[in-house]
Design goal:
Length: about 300
């Protein structure tokens, strides 16, 4: 370990520019897919751009974090670097909190303000009364103001079926990852591996059931991204959360392989600790989704 007075400064790196290119292609590709879909145009090139950007991002993350792991294992980092990593992860999770807060805010705006206005409530309701006088403001919105353009869903996802099961799975995974963390701090590596594998399994099962839920929504319920504002908010919130669960599961899998290679001890294991922070954050977001999207 480096002395407290020292601060490791890495050599020049190609990873930031690679990350920039990958992020640019990913975001432009995703935006092009949405625009082309809404215009009824072909999305082939858009998906190709998105896939290329995603592969570049995966390559960057693998390479950059691999270098960080090598530097850490070589003892190049001091306690000051450890504090920097902790602050960096804390701000990253805060940015994720704000990311989901924006979507929850959009859900609040639609439910509490926009839909009631279209139904004739409030001082801004005149437009809705003129354009769609027969519209009834209810939530979840099953019949849209103009059903010819955006037909509403036939039915909604039953919250007490797959969503409840997924809630139990994620809450259980928070417990298992906490037990794994305590096992690591106590030096019980066999227990650490068992409980970490249990957490990974719970995350994968969650993703499987969310896929089943999406199939049911599209195939049987006509609940799609084109089924109006409820379908849009439903898939944006649950879809982005599913993407975060996928990322968190990949992080847990990497932690397992590192543990298999003998990495981490009871005093130096911030990578595992940061992953557990992220996993707990994902679980808390799901609880908000379960109550605000599925139940209320």
């Amino acid at each position: 370990m480096s002395a407290e007075s020292s601060y490791y400064v890495p050599a020049q790196s190609r990873w930031p520019i690679i990350a920039t290119v990958g992020l640019f292609l990913t975001l432009v590709g995703a935006g092009s897919v949405m625009n082309a879909s809404s215009a009824g145009e072909s999305t082939g090139m858009s998906w190709l751009m998105f896939s290329a950007g995603s592969l570049i991002m995966a390559y960057m993350l693998f390479g950059w974090f691999g270098h960080v792991i090598q530097e850490s294992r070589a003892g190049m980092y001091s306690e000051q670097m450890d504090r920097s990593f902790r602050w960096g992860m804390s701000w990253f999770i805060f940015s994720e909190v704000m990311f989901f807060a924006a979507f929850f805010g959009a859900l609040f705006y639609v439910r509490v303000l926009a839909v009631p206005w279209l139904g004739g409530e409030g001082s801004n309701a005149s437009t809705g009364e003129l354009l769609w006088p027969e519209f009834e403001a209810t939530w979840p919105l099953m019949t849209n103001p103009d059903p010819s353009l955006f037909p509403g869903p036939k039915a909604l996802i039953d919250p007490w079926h797959l969503p409840l099961l997924n809630t139990i799975l994620l809450v259980a995974s928070s417990v298992t990852v906490t037990i794994a963390h305590h096992a690591l701090k106590d030096g019980k590596r066999t227990a650490l591996k068992i409980w970490l594998l249990a957490t990974i399994a719970l995350g994968l099962v969650f993703l499987f059931f969310q896929g089943e839920e999406y199939v049911e929504a599209y195939r049987d319920l006509d609940l799609t991204l084109q089924s109006g504002i409820y379908g849009t908010t439903f898939f944006l919130l649950t879809g982005f959360h599913g993407a975060h669960v996928t990322l968190g599961t990949i992080m847990l899998i990497i932690m397992y392989f590192r543990i298999q290679k003998g990495h981490f001890d009871k005093d130096n294991h911030f990578a595992f600790e940061a992953t557990s922070w992220y996993w707990h954050f994902v679980d808390v977001v799901w609880l908000g989704l379960f109550f605000l999207v599925y139940i209320l």
